[in-house]
Task: inverse folding
């Protein structure tokens, strides 16, 4: 049954396998009039791109092509399709995988579900994290539209393996973690993370981590009770990322250890005269609705399943127990690149709900709106460019 | 925009407010031929019912009425509607709430979204946990259908405030937590939980907790990549429960602290000759698909927001800061009753995906299937009855 | 699989069988702040009510109860549920039907699909036209919301059996067919229709007919290419009415006999300075989008299947050919009451698309909007009341 | 808001504009294991291809590429994507259109909805019938899957302008209309149609027509009451085709002129001992469900809007009335190629409902099923090949 679409008013449908000719995404529901260019999408993809230090060695240029929905540089209201060709594909690295499902991977469940004879094992096929590039590509459009409500999203790697950020961090620092090749929001943290990564690489092992995403200026009242609450849709979107095994927002699991008098927040009049909450303990969501405070959520990534260390598995040809050393080209910690994917998923959910709640016009932008979005986007890109180069 | 429906092939739509004439649910997608009675639904509701020791004092009989979709004791394929009248309603307890939004509650976000003038504040209106009775009612049908695949769901309160179960626990013990008024799976734990509850009641405070849900005999391959993965739909469903602020499955957040060589599981040949995983570290879901191992997931409940202790809020009449002591009748730990709601949500997601994957016939049950389900259900009820009475 | 919901932003889910305790509808997606009363719904239902001259003798009071989603006379944003109890039920009239499926009815297909043992034959069960009362009830809310765009819908019986209106008719005349017990838009036509009906009643037979629906002031640009075009969603909605076997808009089937130079319309500057079409040959829809001209569509109703004349069928007990004379209480021409149902379906589709295109705020109405709607609605009711009484 | 997807279990999402780099379709919900090749898709496309006698002069090779979802010649369960590059594009023919919206076309409504500045006027942009090639491509997969239930679909041009088939026609003759370049099911009809077309071409005019689609061996019980009835979903699908302005099934509009005793069918025991209907007056659908008889439906195509004859329009630069002679390369009767598109839409709806009703396994085909489908498909292609060549 279909499962490759997400969103009700801003709806993405992704397609493509790791070692097929291309991956891509159809974005349906983009209002007409938005300026959008290949460069806008490339820009967002640049923060996810493999082939950098500390991540997988696969050298994909990730060059997006917009093949529908845009005319003369602006969206037309028709479905917007982006394709990204797969260039740097070495399927031969996966020959062993064909017979020996990799522990921690989707290999065996896919075989169980779809049949061994129908399994595209090359590079993980459809279950490969390569698919997430489509999501990040689509998120460029989401982020541009969110300029209309001044919503900006920052994300960083809050913990990597045993190392966790345990001091205060500003939205600015989180946002600027784009500067860091390991998405650390503090310099000292970056060093510690890099050390862990190097050590794991040497050992042929990997680390898990926690990505934290913050969104500023989230429109008030996003979320539709009782099942399409903002927290529900965010949880679904984040759990749809490969390797994500947990989600929490606000106090999250810590709240389960607390008393009501600790976990409840105080309702106050803010300096701007508006009602709000003193400490934002709820992470910006109360009653399932955005409440005007910063959105704060985290998701747990398990360690990269592909490791060089030998692991026990079964040889499907002989049905005998065997071992495998996964050789492909893999991230020592998927959580690092996962940060930008988590950020993308939050953008996709927020823009969907901003449309659902009427904050963004569903059919077309006015000329003013289109222009303002473009100006804000230019400033955003300018601001982020040094970060892009630093990585 | 609509948000009150969940599921694609087994689709529930709930309605009703805490202090309206009734709450209810339409279940669309139930195959014809299933035996279903008011008693079946009442049975499941009995484990959630307020008015017991350690939970809210509201005395609702929770008497469900099936008003459509069943003829001569069997489903007809038409939408099945269950209504539950609200009887024990004391709206006067909420007069103060009308002007003083309760910290930690949906009050203020609902006002922000829908307008103060349209806010049904009585008993929390639509945001009340009362709505979850509709879900539990619907879950009786889900659980009966899941008898076809021998899928059984157990759930317990894994931690309450600072007290956490830190020893091995069997599926049987978890299942039998229905015996416990605080949903503890061990006797010593029950005592500790009860103590905490009593103390909180005295203090006019509340506690958070973690519910763990285990499902045995989950059909293999449930979940639809890449967005309707089983983990995604479970996360969405569980986060849609009021007061749930976190979700994890398998190793969950702990995996984020681990190395790949620790977090990966071993693929082995089981005693029955089938492929499987040695330790079920993945909690029954790999690649987003159920893998034949037990489903293991947890969700974090924040402490009950309604506490008698005075809390800071704002009086909407004067726009001045004020305090409120929430007096209604509330659970000292929503997590306790939350256990049965979490269990219900898991049942609803599993049956939806079992239908999506073809494990349950979409249109009608054969006579054999209907009879087998009924027999298994009778055994299940007999088994659980002593638990019901012990509470 | 679920099939009892319609609409994406204004979503109705109906439930209930002809001889069950009640029928009803959940309307999800109604913005908060709309004034709505039981009387508003009763008013719309009055034009569909059976128990009048020329239609079925079943005496249903059709008294709607709003059981959720409204507080203090205004919608809250929560799902709005309306129930209508079934009172005048005589199931004994259906004893013969149990074994002899009625020609032209859903009896045998329902038995084939859901199983004989699960078939609620009483009054046609779920397939009864009784279900359409839920749709008309929901359409009251749709029509009120459409007051915001001044959209008004008129409908009449364009033909009954061999008699067809073949002269010009104004929107006003069509709208005022509510005065007529047979939904005729001209006095001479009314007489002819009544004669036909009387004759059919005497013969124990029935007639088919064509309902025409016109909507004035339809917002421009409704419809979402390429599958949710306005014409597509209208066709689906109208074909979902029992006994409807055909749909056309604008020139409809006549266009298939024409040349392009005849069927094309002229694009002109209207007196108000706006672009438009000279003759509205397209019936208000071009490219699948509403184009600002009046919406004009028709649907064909087959004759009432329930007739007293003996018809050939098979006795399911003996598997031998047999005959049946259907005795229940039935309309001699379902098309008559079908007019109000067709009108309701058009309202439901238009309001859904008006929401999708941003003409109606998705979350809540402003105080001004709520007031203006109410004023216009009052005028509409006042205008229609004499029509109600005349029937 | 998204509108480019159709179907619940077999879900197509199309993208692409007439003069963009490519058009295409994602098919989500295809079970794994189906053999599928580029040739299969090309085969179906061949019956729709422009560039033949009597249809548009645009010479598109319509060469489909499968870029995802297939591995080693079989579907994998991942979304299957087909792209078709646009090669023979002459946008210069549309320069006049840019300022003079064409009567009968989507031009002006698209401008009204999405804004003049966002309008891709080249070749009709998204509203071009070119998009229907994506649907026909997807229908190849649908038709293959329907081999499992032996469902075969035939379609022919029942009338063209004033000429209508008024004698009996067999399913075989209808099916073999693929032989005819004008989709006529009788030789004498073919000649009359060709004459009409030639005359229209000379005059610079066009004709409307009616396509009739018949499906044999439709599984029993397809359709989900009360809104996703088979007739409703068919109506929606057919009305989504550009230029379709009417739909009917069975007796259709003729039933509206009849008495119940004429329109009702007789329920009988068929020669095979099964229950059925004597005359199939209902066209295979009763109560909204397929009833085991042949599906019979028709849709009305208006005449091609693009004609060389001068027509009145408005010049958008001057806002003055003007005339246009549409020069591009167009079919003299869209209904001719419309036959294959109507056939495709019926296949798409039937396969969706066959999956919804459990006739086709939702996740994967067994080896036997895959093989049987392939064998039947080969026979079907062999049978149709001479027809392909004759055109």
Result:
């Amino acid at each position: 049954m279909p499962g490759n679409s997400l969103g009700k008013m801003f709806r993405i449908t992704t397609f493509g396998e790791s070692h097929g000719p291309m991956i891509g995404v159809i974005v349906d529901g983009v209002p007409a009039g938005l300026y959008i260019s290949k460069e806008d999408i490339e820009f967002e993809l640049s923060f996810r791109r493999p082939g950098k230090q500390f991540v997988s060695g696969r050298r994909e240029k990730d060059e997006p092509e917009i093949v529908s929905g845009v005319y003369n540089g602006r969206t037309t209201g028709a479905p917007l399709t982006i394709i990204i060709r797969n260039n740097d594909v070495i399927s031969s690295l996966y020959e062993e995988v064909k017979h020996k499902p990799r522990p921690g991977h989707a290999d065996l469940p896919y075989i169980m579900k779809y049949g061994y004879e129908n399994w595209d094992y090359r590079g993980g096929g459809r279950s490969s994290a390569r698919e997430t590039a489509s999501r990040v590509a689509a998120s460029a459009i989401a982020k541009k539209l969110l300029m209309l409500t001044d919503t900006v999203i920052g994300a960083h790697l809050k913990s990597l393996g045993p190392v966790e950020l345990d001091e205060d961090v500003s939205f600015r620092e989180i946002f600027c973690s784009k500067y860091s090749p390991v998405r650390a929001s503090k310099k000292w943290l970056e060093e510690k993370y890099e050390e862990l990564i190097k050590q794991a690489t040497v050992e042929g092992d990997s680390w898990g981590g926690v990505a934290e995403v913050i969104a500023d200026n989230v429109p008030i009242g996003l979320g539709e009770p009782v099942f399409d609450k903002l927290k529900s849709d965010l949880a679904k979107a984040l759990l749809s990322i490969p390797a994500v095994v947990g989600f929490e927002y606000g106090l999250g699991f810590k709240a389960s250890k607390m008393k009501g008098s600790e976990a409840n927040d105080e309702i106050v009049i803010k300096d701007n005269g508006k009602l709000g909450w003193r400490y934002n303990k709820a992470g910006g969501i109360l009653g399932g609705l955005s409440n005007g405070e910063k959105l704060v959520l985290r998701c747990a990534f398990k360690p990269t399943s592909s490791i060089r260390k030998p692991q026990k598995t079964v040889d499907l040809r002989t049905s005998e127990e065997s071992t495998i050393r996964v050789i492909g080209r893999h991230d020592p910690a998927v959580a690092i690149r996962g940060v930008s994917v988590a950020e993308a998923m939050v953008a996709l959910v927020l823009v969907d709900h901003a449309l659902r709640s009427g904050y963004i016009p569903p059919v077309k932008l006015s000329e003013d709106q289109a222009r303002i979005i473009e100006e804000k986007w230019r400033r955003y890109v300018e601001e982020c460019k040094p970060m892009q180069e630093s990585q």
